[in-house]
Design brief:
Two copies of one chain form a homodimer.
Chain A: H1 2-20, H2 29-39, H3 46-57, H4 62-84, E1 93-94, E2 97-98, H5 100-104, H6 106-125, H7 130-144, H8 149-160, H9 167-192, H10 197-222, H11 226-248, H12 258-269
Antiparallel strand pairs in A: 1-2
Chain lengths: 272, 272
């Protein structure tokens, strides 16, 4: 059931992303081709789905929240393109296809990431409820800045040379690099729906713990990070603990939040 | 007189930028050091001054517009850091000092640019007049995206290989790469001040032609681009024509716009 739900929403997000991204024939063609290539690549769309579902749980309408949901996915795509660059993780492939810089060259890959970040804020600015835009821009820009996602990437680069990072540093990296955008996704969905501060806080906590668990599962699947330090068993126990903390935060929503519970179970049990 | 005016405002902007940029000791230190190094480097601050002055001409208060003025300068700094990268213009120095990637390495330079762009939108979101934020985010994100500043940089990279670009392509590059952010600066100053659509349009036109002239003067000083095609004389005539078009747009403001006229004269006659 959760698979059907995720698949339906993945398609919805892909359709919207396809509309928001500039057409392939718009000038300069090469950057618009690279933007579409990098975004429309079969991603799971977990982050935008978090935006939609958090909004729905708080009584918001899907239609109202689609631009911000797509913006969050564009931010995620931008971060992957820049992380893959030769001077960073030097990744030749992304989801089984050449990474952006392998296909379009390094300069264009940097600019493609830059354009996606700019487009993300452009989508947020189209949000209908004008009074909410300021807060959404604030939360997202903070989550992805030098104290958030980029801070995590900086620390990650720092420890790449070292053989094993200490657990404290790994915690810092995971909470910044992955959890902070997921927390922002869940939080902004709630904000746009006009949720109470208590609900906003609960969904932020859910998103954050979901993000931390997501990163642990990634580490188990890739055999690095936490899994390297504690072994796959220890990392799995830790993921379970984090998912249960994420689900604790959902209590105030009762059965309304069942889809979010299914999402967190899916994150815990995913095999790729 | 214009020099005193520019110097006074440059100092004001530098002081504000120093406050908005994260402290050097905040973790991860290296990125915050790189952000401050790249922004607080003695720039002329023409773009943020355009925001302040456009706002003042339309009856706005300087204090209200400072976050957006600083945001525009952060966007400009981000674009310079990325333009200087080895895969782009490969510039070893910037204002007589090592460029960001020469000092901090390529990976960190990319992330420093990324952080400055995120921080720029964060500053905009702190704008007091919440109802205006959506439009300001819309205008700036559009001006710097793949149809604006980044589009210009993509075309610029395309023609770098070719010996001489045609005038039509040079026009495209200049209008996107330089004029579009200057137009956005003048326009957003007016928007925040609560100007009429007619005033907003006039200041946008002023900023755009000022930006085009600015790029021509740059070309004359660096002996490339337009100056290469038409010779320094032709490029100077063209700059004069553009500055007079910029000043035409100011007519509706009368003597109130004298500072903006001084700024455009300064841009035309600058020697570095």
């Amino acid at each position: 059931m959760i698979k059907k739900y995720l698949e339906k929403n993945r398609r919805l997000i892909d359709k919207e992303l396809g509309k928001y991204l500039p057409e392939r024939i718009s000038r300069p063609r090469i950057i618009h081709e690279a933007m579409r290539y990098s975004v429309l690549n079969g991603g799971k769309r977990i982050r935008p789905i978090l935006v939609l579902e958090s909004s729905r749980v708080c009584g918001g309408r899907i239609k109202d929240v689609l631009p911000v949901a797509c913006a969050i996915e564009l931010v995620h795509s931008y971060s992957l393109i820049h992380d893959d660059l030769p001077s960073m993780d030097d990744a030749a492939t992304r989801r089984g296809k050449p990474s952006c810089h392998m296909k379009y060259g390094e300069a264009l890959a940097i600019l493609t990431g830059d354009s996606l970040l700019s487009l993300a804020f452009n989508l947020i600015s189209r949000e209908k409820n004008k009074a909410k835009i300021g807060r959404v821009v604030f939360e997202i820009s903070k989550a992805i800045g030098s104290f958030g996602m980029i801070g995590g990437q900086v620390m990650d680069l720092n420890v790449k040379g070292a053989k094993k990072a200490d657990p404290h540093t790994m915690q810092y990296i995971n909470s910044r690099k992955t959890a902070s955008l997921m927390a922002a996704a869940a939080k902004t969905g709630a904000i746009i729906a006009g949720a109470s501060e208590k609900e906003i806080k609960a969904l932020q906590k859910y998103g954050e713990h979901l993000g931390l668990a997501f990163q642990r599962v990634d580490d188990i699947l890739d055999r690095n990070g936490y899994a390297e330090i504690f072994g796959a068993g220890g990392a799995h126990d830790e993921s379970k603990r984090l998912i249960s903390k994420a689900e604790d935060a959902l209590e105030i929503f009762g059965r309304q939040a069942d889809n979010l519970r299914h999402i967190s179970d899916f994150v815990l049990n995913r095999k790729h």
